[in-house]
Amino acid sequence: MGLGSNLHAVSAEICCAHTISGQRRSNMFTLDRIRTAACVAMISLAVACGGGGGDIINPTPTPTPNPIVPAPPALVSVSVRGPSTIVVGASTPYRVVAKYSDGSEVDVTSQVTCASDFMDTVASGCILTPIIEGVPINLTATFSNLVGSMKVTVVPIPGTPWSQLAPLSSQEKSYVVGNIGTSGLINHWRQGTQVKVWAPTSINRAVLDSAVRFLNDSLPELRLVFAVVTDSVAANVWINFGPNVACGKGGPSRISPTGEIETGQITFAAPFCVSIGNVAHELVHVLGFTIHSPRGTDLMSPAVEGLFFSAAVKRAIVWMTSQSFPTRPI
Ligand SMILES: [Zn+2]
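# zinc ion complex -> structure
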């Protein structure tokens, strides 16, 4: 017999003996009835708990029905979400959302590659940077063989009235206006950037160093530092020899959609073209001053007049470089 059954049986005996040995039945009638009722209940409990005499064994497990595994919700659609109108050059993040048959939505932006049907830059994270205004973009994202898309309209960078920009003399303003490209933006290097100039060893290093020193000394207000570097990979301005109609040619070679000049290129037609003045002249073209001052004016005249800047040219260069990105004067 199992231990559990013995305990139940003993409890029942003590309890029942007490009820029948009481001496003051009349006084205790009610109490005894309660006790008797409790005993009956306890005995019943003893029987119910194993009083039948059998050993306690593990109950036969009730077979549990196979759990109903719901079918996973099916992917219904993929959508691209974000602003439908953005400014050219403004990097804008979009979200890619997968919708399932149970109505749930999951952000899957980090799991997809977004693409534009134009030449725009689309970075991971579905960050769109449109390069040209007016060209409608179809931004797409593919997830589990489903394609989501969104039409995006690219609008021009808002213009800033000239009256809200730092004042310029008419001569200075004419230089600035002459340097504005087709984008309408003031293109310039970011202040604080190191302009790292690389040239092959066939270009006289002393000439290069002198040109760079002249610019650093003459244009401290630019807040740019020119340096000659020997590692072409680390450079952001490269000088080379090449076919050229003029003795030298230079200018920005990569400009961001917001007008930030990121790299420059200078080409000289022959070694005799590489003078301090010519190198400095071409480097100022690289700065975004792509036009010439009138003949006989200064370093930026078509034929370099010497190692000096007129006040208007210097002011125009400094003014351009101090603008924020992007600045489109109107
Ligand atoms: Zn020039």
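# post-check
Residues 281, 285, 292 surround zinc ion (CB under 6 Å).
Confidence is low (pLDDT under 50) at residues 1-54.
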